Amino acid sequence: xxxxxxxxxxxxxxxxxxxxxxxxxxxxxxxxxxxxxxxxxxxxxxxxxxxxxxxxxxxxxxxxxxxxxxxxxxxxxxxxxxxxxxxxxxxxxxxxxxxxxxxxxxxxxxxxxxxxxxxxxxxxxxxxxxxxxxxxxxxxxxxxxxxxxxxxxxxxxxxxxxxxxxxxxxxxxxxxxxxxxxxxxxxxxxxxxxxxxxxxxxxxxxxxxxxxxxxxxxxxxxxxxxxxxxxxxxxxxxxxxxxxxxxxxxxxxxxxxxxxxxxxxxxxxxxxxxxxxxxxxxxxxxxxxxxxxxxxxxxxxxxxxxxxxxxxxxxxxxxxxxxxxxxxxxxxxxxxxxxxxxxxxxxxxxxxxxxxxxxxxxxxxxxxxxxxxxxxxxxxxxxxxxxxxxxxxxxxxxxxxxxxxxxxxxxxxxxxxxxxxxxxxxxxxxxxxxxxxxxxxxxxxxxxxxxxxxxxxxxxxxxxxxxxxxxxxxxxxxxxxxxxxxxxxxxxxxxxxxxxxxxxxxxxxxxxxxxxxxxxxxxxxxxxxxxxxxxxx
Length: 537
What we know:
This protein is an alpha+beta fold. Helices cover 28% and strands 20% of the residues.
């Protein structure tokens, strides 16, 4: 089932199965503190948000750390909608096109763990965080603050940001749960970096109590949290299951409280029927995914530097067949900005010339390969990590089969998670790579995958037209004009076929119906969405 943009706008936030989106009795009852929330957790490669783009790191830090701004959360927020509000910032203002001033909440305390020992957060901590973010080597998210010239601690509770040029995405980046949480300088000084679990010291609603890699991570309520009375839930247990069968079994038997699948709190499409039978009162919420699986190619090397080869590989793929096999309950076609970001994504049929390369046309693929000098095909490799996802494994295998049908032999190299993120995910591979991309909540993060010298430019794209469009989008404060630039970017990127985008499925979020004041959404701000939730039992 292929869904149109109108379908996406209509579906956003609708519950298609189970009980109503608002938890039972939530409006009539006073929140009750206490209890534990258990979910399928993830063991990160490490805990330093400036040295990885891994979603597993950011999920864990969403419980323990705070940002200047955050996204509003709750049962009345539609999935895919991201309005920001203050987190550590009590108020803020934009003084001119390039100057922003933030007033911090007074009395915010770091977790009561050495070497911070509960001291008060101050403006110097914020300055330190952003200085480190900009200067540390290996930061795959540095592009988010590429326009940041300097940060000044004006006084104890005032921080001024000065940009080198206007950045229309600045507030979006600050509120994004990826990488921009505020970190403690003493933790870096004591532990050299923030990779160890002992270095996880923040100002967030929960404190890291226990981390057993590949098993369980436990967070306990922060008694000194700066929002009075929150969080309500006393204990959060993130359980890392070894395989899909064991974590689904844990879910249907009530051992965990939310759906167990990537990117979190979801069900695999093939498990929905069984889940509804075994837990008939489940709250199931359906909305389009912003996780977009794509194939990256070494466009700086032969044969992928030849646009005819890239077009051929794209035309060889039967995207509809892959979607029908892996996400049978519905999918959306992805332009260069995922369709789930409906306010910015250009429908595939509006991409101009680039739209035809989403079609399945093996005859034309073979013609293009012959024209490019590969009439007998060629051999290459594809690097990926399976994410413990049968759907991804099936997508890889089907893609390899479709490429073989036009004469391209692909040898699949599967790497462990940490090795994959240190290599293919940041463009260090030969031939092809394939995998889901980070679930950015703004279009700029997807466009940045086309910027030269950016670690997330997995296809090694160097295209002055795209670079200029990306830079113009950051300088254009008028939303209507900026949206047109983003649309022009998508048309040109699709025409050049630097990445092969697969369709995204519809998420099936599954929640215990007794979890009150909680609404699922895109992105990995698990802690932010859980902060005001409570058990209505």
